[in-house]
């Protein structure tokens, strides 16, 4: 494997969906999965198949429809979860099972009520069982951020021998500081050497999820687990758009590390997730917030007009943010204005049948709404391409 490539593992549909008020139905999850594929995500964690029949259905339908990203289901280290995960992802072109058990003293003592030996035995069993279904098995040491390094090394040795191909080190409660997390990743990725890919999964409880993710990649992690708009449990997960754009914008500092993300699809993905979940990124959210590229002060506006780079380290168009359009669509708008709008929104490969059908639906919507927004149009076009 190319040692500079950072694998992007998106868990918007699993950990992101665990965020209060963010649950999505199957059709909505399929729309998000298709957009994540277009974005260039390497692995889509499509859900937790054993959690409910609805989750199973969503993972398996996504598995049937996605071709370019690997489809993964989460499972606890128990037989039925792993079996359900395997059944749900089996139709995918590329698939993975992600199994986990906690390794921190506090989780083992109070939650699992298991000894270290029992945890290792269960972890090995889970990985071996998952390997009977798929070649690509990820194992997570839940609460790695608060686990002991020596015990994590024992677990890693055992699960790698059992067939785990990716070892994920979640900072489950967002406890670690970047210097600490970087040191942990360095020690464990040197320990794993080339036996497995080291991954990180950072929560944002102290607002450090992205800083921790970036500290991890500079210390040997080659997979990052992220969500769109930073959705996720409590304060959320590390945001895809932040780490990806930091690695791209500061390629010099990251010594040529790169991702396969098509950054021009970032904004469209963010809007789709916000529209579907109803959870808007805060206005000043890095990369995708409403104000991320807005310049209010006169000095800044003057500077940007003279030379964009005076106050902009990234170009809005690099993440697919389009220049404000004065074209407002309503029931009197014609096909040409509609076509212009969807091209501006980045949908330049829409066929004429899709355009015609979306235009008809736009007219019906425009009769009901005074003004049809860019998000409305994005949803119309996404629905159209899904129906083809
Ligand atoms: O935060 C966490 O530890 C998780 C694991 C299940 C990977 O989401
Ligand atoms: Zn998590």
From TrEMBL:
Residues 6-267 form the Pyruvate carboxyltransferase domain. The lineage of its organism: Bacteria, Pseudomonadati, Campylobacterota, Epsilonproteobacteria, Campylobacterales. It catalyses: 3-methyl-2-oxobutanoate + acetyl-CoA + H2O = (2S)-2-isopropylmalate + CoA + H(+). Belongs to the alpha-IPM synthase/homocitrate synthase family. LeuA type 1 subfamily. The chain holds residues 1 to 388 of 517 of the full protein. Homodimer. The keyword Repressor does not apply. The keyword Transmembrane does not apply. Pathway: Amino-acid biosynthesis; L-leucine biosynthesis; L-leucine from 3-methyl-2-oxobutanoate: step 1/4. Keywords: Amino-acid biosynthesis, Branched-chain amino acid biosynthesis, Cytoplasm, Leucine biosynthesis, Manganese, Metal-binding, Transferase. Mn(2+) binds at residues 15, 201, 203, 237. Signal peptide: none annotated. Catalyzes the condensation of the acetyl group of acetyl-CoA with 3-methyl-2-oxobutanoate (2-ketoisovalerate) to form 3-carboxy-3-hydroxy-4-methylpentanoate (2-isopropylmalate). Its cofactor is Mn(2+). Its EC number is 2.3.3.13. This is 2-isopropylmalate synthase.
């Amino acid at each position: 494997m190319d040692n500079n490539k950072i694998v992007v593992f998106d868990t918007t549909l699993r950990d992101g969906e665990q965020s209060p008020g963010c649950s999505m139905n199957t059709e909505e999850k399929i729309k998000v999965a298709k957009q994540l594929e277009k974005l260039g995500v390497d692995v889509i964690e499509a859900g937790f198949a054993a959690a409910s029949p609805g989750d199973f259905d969503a993972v398996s339908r996504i598995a049937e429809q996605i071709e370019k990203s690997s489809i993964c289901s989460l499972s606890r280290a128990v037989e039925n979860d792993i079996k359900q995960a395997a059944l749900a992802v089996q139709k995918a072109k590329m698939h993975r099972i992600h199994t986990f058990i906690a390794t921190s003293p506090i989780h083992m003592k109070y939650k699992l009520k298991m000894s270290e030996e029992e945890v290792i035995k269960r972890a090995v069993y889970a990985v071996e069982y998952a390997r009977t279904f798929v070649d690509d098995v990820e194992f997570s040491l839940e609460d790695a951020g608060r686990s002991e390094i020596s015990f994590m090394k024992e677990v890693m040795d055992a699960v790698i021998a059992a067939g785990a191909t990716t070892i994920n080190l979640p900072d489950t409660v967002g406890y670690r500081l970047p210097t600490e997390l970087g040191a942990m990743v360095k020690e464990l990725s040197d320990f794993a050497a080339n036996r497995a890919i080291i991954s990180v999964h950072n929560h944002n409880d102290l607002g450090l999820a992205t800083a921790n993710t970036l500290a991890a990649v500079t210390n040997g992690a080659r997979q990052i687990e992220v969500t769109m708009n930073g959705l996720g449990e409590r304060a959320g997960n590390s945001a895809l758009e932040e780490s990806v754009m930091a690695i791209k914008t500061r390629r010099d500092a990251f010594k040529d590390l790169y991702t396969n993300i098509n950054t021009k699809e970032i904004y469209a993905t963010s809007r789709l997730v916000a529209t579907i979940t109803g959870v808007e990124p805060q206005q000043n959210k890095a990369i995708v917030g409403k104000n991320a590229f807005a310049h209010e002060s006169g000095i800044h506006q003057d500077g940007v007009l003279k030379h964009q780079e005076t106050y902009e380290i990234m170009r809005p168009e690099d993440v697919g943010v389009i220049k404000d359009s004065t074209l407002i669509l309503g029931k009197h708008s014609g096909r040409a204005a509609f076509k212009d709008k969807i091209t501006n929104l980045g949908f330049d490969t829409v066929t004429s049948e899709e355009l015609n059908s979306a235009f008809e639906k736009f007219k019906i919507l425009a009769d009901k709404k005074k003004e049809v927004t860019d998000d409305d149009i994005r949803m119309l076009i996404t629905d159209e391409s899904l129906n083809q």
